[in-house]
Amino acid sequence: MFQLASITHRVTCMQVAVAGTNSKDIKAMLKSRCDIPACLAVGRILADRAREADVYTTAYTPRDSDKFEGKVRAVVQSLIESGIDVNVYLD
């Protein structure tokens, strides 16, 4: 099992930045690929890749079945701590 996160441009539907625990640069530094520290690492790498693509603001809208807790919350929190402005829209 691995964690994957991406930032997608809403208008063009193109992925701007992608990070996952199955990539070589993250896999080597993790004990486990599916725990909270792994999600924090994914958030940091995703933030770095977003900044490289000149993306500094993003929005997170969960699907109906998603809950904003645990691993999802860890990735979003890591993005915020890494300097990406994340607008979270919860119903």
Automatic annotation (TrEMBL):
The lineage of its organism: Eukaryota, Viridiplantae, Streptophyta, Embryophyta, Tracheophyta. It comes from Cuscuta campestris. Keywords: Ribonucleoprotein, Ribosomal protein. GO terms for molecular function: 5S rRNA binding; structural constituent of ribosome. InterPro entries: Ribosomal_uL18_bac/plant/anim, Ribosomal_uS11_sf. GO terms for biological process: translation. Belongs to the universal ribosomal protein uL18 family. This is L18 ribosomal protein Heart Stopper. One of its GO terms (cellular component) is ribosome.
